[in-house]
Amino acid sequence: MGDAYVWVADVDARPEEAAELAGRVMDWLEEEGIVRSELTHCLLGDELGRPPGPHAASAVTEDEVTALAACGVGMEIERRVYLCAEVWTATCPHCGATAEPSESGPDMWTREWAPLLDDLYAWFGGTGPGSGACVRCGGRADFLAWGIDPPVAVAHLGLVLWNWPPLSGRFLAELSGLLGGHRLVTARTTV
Fold first, then answer.
1. b/e burial code for range 127-150 (CB count within 10 A of at least 16 → b)
2. pTM of the model
3. Using one digit for the tens of pLDDT, what is the confidence trace for 102-147?
4. Helix (H), strand (E) at residue 184
5. Per the count of CB atoms within 10 A, which of 71, 93, 114, 142 is most buried?
6. 74 near 80, Cβ under 8 Å?
7. Rg of the chain's alpha carbons, rounded to an integer?
8. Neighbouring C-beta atoms of residue 152, cutoff 10 Å
């Protein structure tokens, strides 16, 4: 079994407030004992993160957070598209058309639905509006309005927890409250 991570995207955070909100979140996680205060090499790659604290289990759905070589929390303060490694489907909120996964080949979806992926990439690159157009009806909707499963989010602030179990609903509600009631989108994926 490979490494996994949980991501939480704050879809309401504006770029100009993301750094301040990230500091607020990390201070709270440390105060609650969910993470330790020291930065270590507990994430995959070269980035530093915070390892689980003595009360890390209070944030998850399981009894403990097992500390593996890569087991920590990092904040991302940049324009990001958060998604899962699994193949996902998207349903248009206007007409109900569904992007079907490709049967074979390197494409995530059939080529017909490539424009929706192009819209995601355009947002990530700073040139897109944060919405996707349906190839069937032409309707455009915010990415959150699309029925995407597993979830996809576009955000300027995200929390990434490497090799943590799924987060509890209580923890996510407290985190949203800390962020002023911001909407959070979360998922767990393997790499």
1. ebeebbbbbeeeeeeebbebebee
2. 0.90
3. 665 555 556 677 888 889 999 999 998 889 999 899 999 999 999 9
4. strand 184-190
5. 71
6. no
7. 17
8. 20
| DSSP conformational letter for 102 | P
Q: Which residue has the tokens 């309401």?
A: 12
Burial of 92 (0-12, 13-18, 19+ CB in 10 A): buried
Q: What are the pLDDT digits (tens) for 169-185?
A: 999 999 999 999 999 99
The neighbouring-strand residues paired with 189 are 5
The H-or-E segment that residue 53 falls in is none
Pairing of strands 157-162, 4-10: antiparallel
> What distance in Å separates the CA atoms of residue 26 and residue 54, rounded to the nearest whole number?
15
